[in-house]
Amino acid sequence: MPPQSRKKPQPQGDELPMAERGLENLIGYNLKRAYVIVRGDFRATMGEDGMSPRVFSALSFVVDMPDITQSELARRLGIERSGLVAIVDDLEGRGYLRRTAVPGDRRVQALRPTQVGVEAFAEAIAQAEAHEARLLQVMSEDEKAQLLALLRAIREPGEADAI
Amino acid sequence: MPPQSRKKPQPQGDELPMAERGLENLIGYNLKRAYVIVRGDFRATMGEDGMSPRVFSALSFVVDMPDITQSELARRLGIERSGLVAIVDDLEGRGYLRRTAVPGDRRVQALRPTQVGVEAFAEAIAQAEAHEARLLQVMSEDEKAQLLALLRAIREPGEADAI
DNA sequence: TATTGTTATACTCTATAACTATA
DNA sequence: TATAGTTATAGAGTATAACAATA
């Protein structure tokens, strides 16, 4: 396993050259395979009873936007309201947040992070950053920033309406 | 929604600057969100009765490596042998491949693509390439090649032992 | 003993639909 | 009527464990 050689880009028109065809050259396939690796390392880092990626993501939003509603959080996470219930149950069970009543609209329950939750998130994000630094150590900071920008370029058009 | 501004890389030491912290700056989170979008567009492209991403991937290997065994295919796809059974059932049900006996070792059944399967794959890969060209049209060819190289840089260390 | 394909089973993630209590 | 949270349910996708046939 040599230290990785980045393929140089190649101009392409209507048809791709043979060497650039096939599964291994599809962004989607590579996205999936790369995500499986990152997710596995994230889970190993967080440990047996650690937060799953989606629970961690939800907590991040709650810490960042205290008193966010579940509907709003679901929209931001790109999932259905119904699917969020188990995630919030998980976080509430860990004592990381509480469902609090909102004066003026008794339908909604604002999600308020606890002190324990804020501290747990601070630790988790530090662990996550360390996990990525370790896993992606073959990449330069430049390359990581470039990757981030390119992934956002995929996300932005598709999520524009949902946000 | 402006035409997308790629963030310039920034040097970082032990601590990240505030603007570079949080969920939105994690590669893993962005990988997941980007993949969800690409997968959704892939499925919409393939249509109601089209191949799922994993079935398409499996067919790609079978067409590329006729008479591959199920164990070998599972290893290459990074999944368990047991999980491959339903995928091969799907492809066999579509008439895209056949399980064929191998003289010399009666345990294994080689996967041989049919003519229909080869043609279906040719059409599917063309559709997949068109779907990515359409979905990723905001990115230059250079940027797409760069993204591919970076995703492979994540995959290679983690998959090295499995291949 | 080890390997191949298979089945049984369970768990995670997600979606749709329907319910309730509010508005 | 519409919305927020919830429940019930189902369907992918994946994993582990065990099995029969074969090596």
SSE topology:
The structure is a homodimer of 163-residue chains.
Chain A: H1 27-46, H2 53-64, H3 70-77, H4 81-93, E1 97-101, E2 109-113, H5 115-135, H6 141-159
Antiparallel strand pairs in A: 1-2
Helix pairs in contact in A: 1-5, 2-4, 2-5, 3-4
The structure holds a DNA duplex (23 and 23 nucleotides).
Description:
Chain A is mostly helical. Helices cover 57% and strands 6% of the residues of chain A. Chain A has helices at 27-46, 53-64, 70-77, 81-93, 115-135, 141-159, and strands at 97-101, 109-113. Chain A has a two-stranded antiparallel ribbon with strand order 1-2. The termini of chain A are far apart. The model of chain A is unreliable at 1-14 (pLDDT under 50). At the A-B interface, α1, α2, α5 and α6 of A face α1, α2, α5 and α6 of B. The structure holds a DNA duplex (23 and 23 nucleotides).
